[in-house]
Amino acid sequence: MIRTKAFLIALAASAALATVAQAQTELRMLWYSDGNEGEVMQDLLTRFEQENSDIKVVFDNVAYDVIQTQLPVQLEAGNGPDLARVTNIKALANHWLDLRPHLDDAAYWEANFADYLDWMRPDGSDAIPGFMTQLTVTGPYINKTLFDQAGVEVLPESATWDEWVEAAKKVAADQQAPIALGWDRSGHRLAGPAISMGAKYIGEDGAPAVIDDGFKAMAERIARWHQEGTMPKEVWGGVAGQTYAALNEEFANGNVVMYESGSWQIGQFTTTISDAFDWWAIPAPCGPEACSGLPGGAAVVAIKYTQHPEEVARLMEWLASEPVMKEFAERTLFIPGHKALAEQGLDFQTDNESAKRALDVFVKETAKFAPLAKRMPSYQWADAIYAATITRMGQVVAGEMTLEDAYQRIPEDIEQKMAEAGK
User: Fold this and answer.
1) What is the pLDDT of residues 309-327, one digit of tens each?
2) Does residue 292 contact residue 369 with C-beta atoms inside 8 Å?
3) Which of 384, 211, 191, 357 is nearest to 280 (CA)?
4) Among 2, 226, 332, 403, which one is most buried in terms of CB atoms within 10 A?
5) Using an 8 Å Cβ cutoff, are 373 and 288 in contact?
6) Could you tell me the residue ranges of all domains in the chain?
7) Helix (H, G, I), strand (E, B), or coil: what is residue 367?
8) Hey, which CATH number is domain 27-135+296-344, 3.90.180.10, 3.10.350.10, 3.40.190.10, 3.30.365.10?
9) Coil vs helix vs strand at 96
10) DSSP secondary-structure letter at 231?
11) Strand, helix or coil at 281?
């Protein structure tokens, strides 16, 4: 009798667990990482699941190229995860879910994220598709230890691109460093320096207008620096199309004197470099028109093809809450896109002096953006511009076309993407 009773209790418990399991909603979150943010997010999601036992989050931490190339294809087919971390925010805005009808407190989002919501929603819309996981600032790093060993002074804030590259070349020659100037293979990374040179990117009619004297001034430098060996051809010329490539590992290994990348590298450099050498972020070098990097960042957005909008909204509200965002920013060393946190300041969790200095530099850079640089993240055709410019400049570096050919093909590529988007 006792055994029968125990069996029935166990059976009832199993049935209850099965009912809970059956009632659990599964959400898929597509993510990429530059540093430790994937580990931090996984930790936060585990905590969310403990507080929300009816939701399970499958966390797919993938290579950045998957986000850039595979996710857009899925979205065009009406598929995809329930939510994703993306940088191609504006161009894919029609695929994001408007969370507004599902949020408990839309006013909180408008108060704290209003400056960046236009970056991720269709023009003219008041949708709330998601939030910025971090704000980013493009700009260079230098291996300060190599500068010191070569006896080359760090240049003042007013120094130009030409002056910085000449200094990096001197250091590389003196220290026998393989790469004087590293530069992420990215049209986005090209834009800030080009704008500093006077590139307009957007015509008076609001349509893309990339090829002008300012753009040519930076494009010609990029071509020349590759030709003379200041930049390694294997990065920009070694892959095809708009494929992204970075030199963060080469920089971390001490092989690069100066590296044009951005603030998102800080978190991983605290681990991959630590204190092996002094790595300094420096203010954006100047051109005749500006001394500007480019603002940007990554956003977590809800995908409108989800079958579980209410559960997605609940997860998004939890992740976007002030205490969770504060913890995420402090642990990942990211600049938060959250008004209240920006005003309060954060206690970044690092003892690395290079990281502290880099955070200070990049925060100050946010006040120096050229007006056009601030406009680009919300410009509808920005990603089409970035794709076309890096594709054709990559072919120039690889010796597959001349600069003059690239100047002709870049506008054609952009027009084609605009036509495809209009179908």
Assistant:
1) 999 999 999 999 999 999 9
2) yes
3) 357
4) 332
5) no
6) 27-135+296-344, 137-295+360-421
7) coil
8) 3.40.190.10
9) strand
10) S
11) strand
Asked if 67 and 86 count as a contact pair (C-beta separation under 8 A), the reply is yes
State the Cα–Cα distance between residues 112 and 344, nearest whole angstrom: 12
Q: How far apart are CA 335 and CA 326, in angstroms?
A: 10
Tokens of 145: 């230890």
Topology of the domain comprising 137-295+360-421 = D-Maltodextrin-Binding Protein; domain 2 (3.40.190)
Instruction: Compute the half-sphere exposure of residue 15: CA atoms within 13 Å on the CB side of its CA.
Output: 6
The SS3 call for residue 92 is coil
pLDDT of residue 19: 46
Is residue 263 within 8 A of residue 136, CB to CB? The reply is yes
Classify residue 118 as exposed, middle or buried by CB count within 10 Å of its CB (0-12, 13-18, 19+): middle
Q: What is the enclosing helix (H) or strand (E) of 346?
A: none
Per-residue model confidence as pLDDT tens digits over 227-253: 999 999 999 999 999 999 999 999 999
Locate tokens 């309060």: which residue?
344
Joined tokens for residue 238: 């070694």
Q: Are the folds of 27-135+296-344 and 137-295+360-421 the same?
A: yes
